[in-house]
Amino acid sequence: MAGKKKELQLQVVITNQEHWHEVMSAKGLTVVDVYQDWCGPCKAVLSLFRKLKTEIGDELLHFAVAEASHFHTLDAFKGKCEPVFLFYSGGKAVAMVKGVNGPLLQKTILEHVQEAKKKQEMGDKYIEAPVRFIFFEGLYIVLLFQTDLSDDSYTVAIIKPDAVSQGKVDEIKNKFQEAGFILVTEEQRHLTAEQARDFYLDQAGQSEFEDLVKFISSGPCHVLVLSRGTEANKDVPAWKELIEQSDVELMKAHPSEKLKYQESSDSKELASRELAFFFPSFGKEQQKTDTDEAITPEIQKTLALIRPDLLREKKKETLQKIRESGFTIAMQKEIMLTEEQAKGFYREHVGQDYFPVLIKHMTSGPILALALAREDAVQHWRNLLGPKKLEDAKEKAPESMRAEFALENIPINQLHGSSSPEEARKDLEFFFPVEQTLAVIKPDAYKEHKDDILSYIKEAGFSISQMKETVLTKEMAEGFYKDHRGKHFFDELVQYMSQGPSMMMILSKENAVQEWRDMMGPTDPELAKQSNPSSLRAQFAKSILENAIHGSSNVEHAKKNINLIFENINLE
Q1: Could you say which residues bind ATP here (predicted)?
Q2: Residue 430 labeled ligand binder
Q3: How far is CA 299 from CA 273, 280, 328, 347, 558, in A?
Q4: Do the annotations mark residue 523 as ligand-binding?
Q5: E strand or H helix that includes residue 43
Q6: Residue, of 384 and 120, whose pLDDT is higher
Q7: pLDDT tens for residues 256-276?
Q8: Tens digit of pLDDT for each residue in 475-514?
Q9: Which helix (H) or strand (E) holds 127?
Q10: Which tens digit of pLDDT belongs to each residue from 186-217?
């Protein structure tokens, strides 16, 4: 009995909805163990909770237990065997940990207790960090943030994979529209794990970061851009009212409260970066429809080049700096320039004293070409770079990237940027031309997953220029895979590829060859599941041999195989 009494003193037993709101509104951090009636609260964490309670004290840390079936707030967790711990601060949910993970629980508690302490110390000066998670009807997660692109305020809502897979998109859209919000544009996207990491870069240090990346890349998301509309529509419900009407009880997020950072320049850059991630041309399109008086920041793309020595020595640090500066890396390509290509790209510098040295340097090793997207990308990137001459950069702009990433004994600056929007367009076309690549849905995947794979292809922005169903003869399969002739798996591969119909497609897009290969993932599906779980092979491949899809390895390979399958086709 004494032990039971000790546990009850440690954890408040929440008995009803009114009691729930009372407990959640306590100062500091409240950790709720959500349990099922057949198994009771989790006992494995009690010693950890007791230790933390002793170290931190009663003022900032509270523990509670709640049976899932007793609260409509917890409908999402009814019947789940896995323990769930919810974290509340100031009446608002701030985190969630699934499973008995002691180190993660301790890390999450300490992080949020520190934040609660900071809030107490700063009082009215404290600015709440944004909470990205909202549960629609206790289950469907939506992310909201706001950005001012004109006199209107635009909100981006991301309907995440679980809601999309359950067919809830139309229902959620209707709730927004019924409340008076205008749907400006929408898009369905399946993010790779790398893209998800880029998108959530500002949360990279959080304990749940990898879980978030894994979740957001687990399936297609549906992205909405919403507007409160003109002055006549300003009486539509605020987000808080809309969320309450939608029975969003768990992890309520009211952007006008939580996203106070939207008034600062840093947060506007973050909002613009995230909008640019999904809709790079959104600002440009809005300019056409807004009034002349409205000033609409334009979402642009610009070219950035990381030159050979810097790429070799500080690639990771350079990319990190670029992302921290509010840019989304829309495309990237590592390339070894020929002398002819380098001279063509820098043709305007012909005749300058430094031209031979520049060309020699640009062809001395691989460079990394980046398509960077954000509001006013061209000018912002140029400002970030600083003066072209290293001496000027170091003397006049020591905080510029050219000064920061200058390398010893190398007289040439290590970063390039386009000088105008028109030049950026030409530069991007130079490094990221519209390409064609051959994509093949192999026999086993064609039979079982054709429609799913085609859906992913379209969502990724590829144009399908040509497609046809083909049963490869043995001779065609041997020709198709002639580069593998003589390898131990060649005969088995030929037999597999000629066993039934395949879907042959010509895909067109900027940087199509590399983007399709990234989307496919590693040849080995087990490796794909570990390194890129959202890739097509991670989802649909059975083995290294039966790996669902094929893609050309380079542009020349694509041309040869396209001509083999689609005879005499004109790719111009």
Answers
A1: 442, 489, 517, 523, 537, 547
A2: no
A3: 9, 6, 11, 28, 32
A4: yes
A5: none
A6: 384
A7: 232 222 222 334 445 555 566
A8: 888 888 888 888 888 889 899 998 999 999 999 888 889 8
A9: none
A10: 777 777 777 777 666 656 656 667 777 787 78
Is 230 known to sit in a ligand binding site?
Answer: no
337 token code pair: 């320039």
Q: What is the pLDDT of residue 555?
A: 87
CA 537 – CA 42 distance, rounded (Å): 38
H runs (alpha helix) in 293-420: 308-324, 339-345, 355-362, 377-385, 390-396, 401-404
DSSP-based three-state secondary structure for 33 = strand
SS3 content of the chain, % helix, strand, coil (to 5): 45, 20, 30
CB neighbour class for 257 (10 Å; exposed up to 12, middle 13-18, buried from 19): middle
CB 189 within 8 A of CB 459: yes
For residue 115, with 0-12 CB atoms within 10 Å meaning exposed, 13-18 middle and 19 or more buried, which class applies? Answer: middle
Ordered alpha helix ranges (H), 17-101: 17-24, 46-56
- Which amino acid, 516? W
Residue 325's nearest CA partner among 415, 389, 410 is 415
Task: With cut-offs at 50, 70 and 90, classify the pLDDT of residue 287.
Answer: very low
With H, G, I as helix, E, B as strand and everything else as coil, classify residue 39: coil
For residue 445, the SS3 value is helix
**The two three-digit tokens of residue 142, written as one number:** 């939506």
Q: Is 511 part of any known ligand binding site?
A: no
User: In 3D, which of 196, 199, 202, 238 has the Cα closest to residue 218?
Assistant: 196
Got the DSSP string for 277-314? HH-TTHHHHHHHHS-TT---PPEEEEEEEE-HHHHHHH
Q: What is the pLDDT of residue 550?
A: 93
Looking at the annotation, which residues are catalytic? 416, 550
What is the torsional sign of CA 272, 277, 278, 282? positive
Return phi, psi of residue 253, to 5°.
-130, 120
Beta strands in 182-253, from DSSP E residues, in sequence order: 182-189, 221-227
Q: In the sheet that 463-470 helps form, which strands lie side by side, from edge to edge?
A: 463-470, 502-510, 434-441, 549-551
